[in-house]
Structures are given as C-alpha cells and as structure tokens.
Amino acid sequence: YETLAVATDAESRQDSDLLPKTGGKRLTPDWTFVLGEQAQDISVPSFSHSSSSILVLGERNLFCLRDNGQIRFMKKLEFNPSCFLPYASVKDGTTNLLLGTHNNMLLIYQDVTLKWAAQLPFVPVAVRVASFPELKGVVVSLSSDGHLLSSYLGTDPSFFSTPKVDAREADYEQVDVEMKKLQKFIREATRTQDILPKSDAAEDLSVKSTVCSCLDISSQALIPDIDGLPVPSVTVQVKVKASSVLQSAKLSVCIQPPLAVSQDQFDLEQMGKQLEDHPFILRLDSK
C-alpha cells in the first residue's frame, strides 16, 4: 500500500525531483497467476486460518490461492457459475462456499466437496448469509430483476409422533379361522374355468378352402405364357363362416413364389350368421 501511495503522489504532483527517488510511476507485481479464463468474482475471506486465501471464481473453474500466489486447490465446474460467497466453516482447515449457477441451483461446497444442493426459482446474481433478530443463518439470494429470496438449508422438523397402540395378545384360533377363509376365497378366484370365458360348441369364425383336382380348361393366369409355354391355373374355393357380425372384414391370400395369385385381397361385406362363398383364382408361374 505504501508503494501505491507514493507512486500515486508522485504522479499527481508531477515533481521531477521526486520521480527518480520513488522509482517512477511504474509498479511491478510481487507475483502473478494465469487463470486461463475471465475472473467473474474475487474474494479474500477474513476468517482465514494460518494463512489467508484468495478465492477466484472463473467461467468454468474455482481457484483457491495462498497469499504468496501458490494454488491451494482448484475445482473444475460442470456448469456456468453466476455468483459465490465464502463463509466460515465449523470444521477447522476448510472453507465453505455458497455457489450460484445459471441453471437455478444453489450449491454448498466444503473446499471441493459438494455438501448440499438446492433449487432456486431464479438465477442468483448475488448471495449472502444474513442474521435477523430472531433468525440467524438465512441465505439471501438476489435475482437479476431485483427479487430477494430468504431461505435456509435443511427441512422442517417433524413433531408428529406415532400414538401408542394397546398391546393385546393375538387370538391364534381366530387368526387360523380367518386364514382358512381367505385361502378358500383365493382358490375360488384363481380357478381357470372362472377366469376364462366359456366358449360355445360352435366356433366363432371358420375358414375352409377347397382346391380343385383338375386344372382350369381355359387358363385364368394373368400371364398367359412364359417363353412360349402356356401357364396353367387352378381354382381354389374359400368358404368363410361367422357366428357373429363382423365389420369391415378382409381376406388376405399369402403364397410363396413361384406360385402367384390373381387376387390377394378381398373386401368382405358385413358378415352375419351365413356368408356366401368367395372363390378366387390361384395360378402357377412354373411349368
């Protein structure tokens, strides 16, 4: 401080005889430390222990330096910090930190160890620990639009205690009777014939197909010939019968090559108790 005062005095007086004696206006630092990023806040807590610490909050890191410029510890942050506040720790040799983030979080660190995390309704730009007449240790947060939030760490204590129940001996005979009754209900409820619906003798839907044993006299194939050879065809008759009404029924025919079918989709009208037969033509591409 004396060097700063003398240099400032020499600069203000502009005395040619004084400047050479004080070494001029140029000041040299005792030590420097390269952070590698912009420092958002610097704090020198007064509750330091054997040696004072200089805490620097960067854009992605938190630095703690000794008074001689040596680094004490560094914490790499996985978020964008907005503010921080060192405060006294109950454990000797450690420093507690209140650290606000841009994702509305308030984190409490003991040196580099995370001890507590809380969600805030806004991004804090400043945080302090305040003491009121009947309330001490209140965390006060300030938002960018001027909102103040007073909060505290921890949860509300629960004063509810479970009332005592009257101790009574269990009547084992009554419990045995009740257990047998419940087991009987369970057996009746888990029976298969009671769970699954009983099916009628007649099937709800039946599909039967009949393949003619003779080839068609006149081929119904879509391709009449291949390499000059005629393609034969055979007629397959499909009978669909439903015992209940079906809406928007469709019949699809799936076959494997080299077989081919003249029509693979059939839109069936509303199916009732009886349904007319729907024949379709099946053709053969091979010889």
Describe this structure in words.
This protein has 287 residues and is mainly β. Helices cover 13% and strands 37% of the residues. It contains four helices and 19 strands. The strands form six sheets. The chain has a four-stranded antiparallel β-sheet with strand order 1-2-3-4, with no helix packed on it. The protein has a four-stranded antiparallel β-sheet with strand order 5-6-7-8, with no helix packed on it. A hairpin with a 3-residue loop joins strand 2 (53-57) and strand 3. The N and C termini lie far apart (109 Å).
Characteristics of this structure?
four-stranded antiparallel β-sheet, mainly beta, 19 strands, 287 residues, disordered C terminus
Q: What's the SSE blueprint?
A:
Elements (H helix, E strand, L loop, with lengths): L1 H12 L5 H4 L18 E3 L9 E5 L3 E6 L4 E6 L4 E7 L8 E6 L3 E6 L2 E7 L4 E9 L2 E9 L4 E4 L20 H18 L2 H4 L9 E7 L13 E2 L2 E2 L2 E10 L6 E4 L6 E3 L3 E4 L9 E7 L3
Antiparallel strand pairs: 1-2, 2-3, 3-4, 5-6, 6-7, 7-8, 9-10, 10-11, 12-15, 13-14, 15-19, 16-18, 17-19
InterPro entries: PHTB1_GAE_dom, PHTB1_N_dom, PTHB1
Protein name: Bardet-Biedl syndrome 9
Pfam families: PHTB1_N, PTHB1_GAE
